[in-house]
Design brief:
By secondary structure, the protein is mainly alpha-helical. The protein contains 11 helices and 4 strands, in the order ααββααααααβααβα. α2 runs antiparallel to α7, α4 packs across α6 and α8 crosses α9. It starts with a helix and ends in an 11-residue tail after the last helix.
Length: 265
């Protein structure tokens, strides 16, 4: 659940987009989500780096490898490390804008394996923030929003979707969280089930089902077969809206969950 303080911060980000020239509310949400995705990828790798350092083992999941990603217009090397949120947010606006527009977005489109649904949905990802000043302002605001809770990104997206007067016309109705929780508790999913939402939207039902399983099956992840099923084959979601699918794909990957957990991405 979002606090009043977090809602106020989101409203400030929303107003900054509008004042900066992005008036299409769906475009606001899309650019907002891309930036959250960039932040989430960096935080995920940081967690793996910290774990590897603590255990003295190689990093399990490398999102930003060492080495050069590409060269800029002047022939200078741009490393993968320069694409990380923690580096970008401290760059000057002009440099940040150049890196995000010419390197980060191609990286986001290319990071999935060729032929996967994630690759298919992300191929249309476009960076449309018009000025370095607006990008720097929004990045500074997003850096102040806490994202520690597992489902905060979904709550953020649903809150922004709720602000759009056209949401109902697009068929994008949010199911209240307490109704989702009740329905999942009535269904009582088990670790052996396969769970599908044929109109998944932001996948609130699938997330709630996952949380229910975590809460009611404490040994779930200690069983290798059940752990593999949970991450690779249990959850299936479908939606006709490409924007929705991109949001979920980014949300899954930035939290470190395996791509196959949702068959749409």
């Amino acid at each position: 659940m979002l606090t009043g303080e977090i809602r106020a911060k989101i409203d400030q980000v929303w107003n900054a987009f509008w004042a900066g020239g992005i008036a299409n509310p769906l475009e606001v949400i899309e650019q907002f989500t891309y930036l959250l995705f960039m932040r989430g990828l960096d935080e995920e790798q940081t967690r793996h780096e910290n774990k590897a350092n603590m255990l003295g083992q190689p990093i399990e999941r490398v999102i930003f490898p060492e080495g050069v990603y590409r060269q800029d217009r002047d022939g200078k090397d741009v490393s993968y490390q320069e694409l990380r949120w923690s580096r970008l947010k401290n760059d000057d606006p002009a440099r940040m804008f150049l890196l995000v527009s010419e390197f980060v977005f191609p990286f986001l489109r290319e990071m999935a394996e060729a032929g996967t649904a994630h690759s298919e949905h992300m191929k249309g990802a476009r960076f449309t923030i018009p000025t370095p000043g607006l990008l720097a302002k929004v990045v500074d605001m997003l850096a102040e929003i806490p994202l520690e809770d597992r489902d905060t990104k979904g709550d953020l997206y649903e809150y922004m979707l709720g602000k759009i007067a056209s949401a109902g016309q697009n068929g994008q109705f949010r199911t209240p969280r307490h109704i989702i929780k009740l329905m999942v508790e009535l269904m009582k999913p088990t670790p052996q089930d396969v769970i599908c939402d044929p109109a998944s939207g932001t996948c609130g039902f699938l997330v709630a089902a996952g949380e229910y399983l975590r809460e009611h099956n404490k040994g779930l992840f200690r069983d290798a077969a059940l752990n593999r099923h949970f991450h690779d084959g249990m959850f299936h979601g479908y939606d006709f809206d490409q924007t929705m699918l991109r949001k979920w794909c980014m949300r899954r990957r930035s939290t470190g969950r395996r791509r196959r957990s949702l068959q749409s991405c």
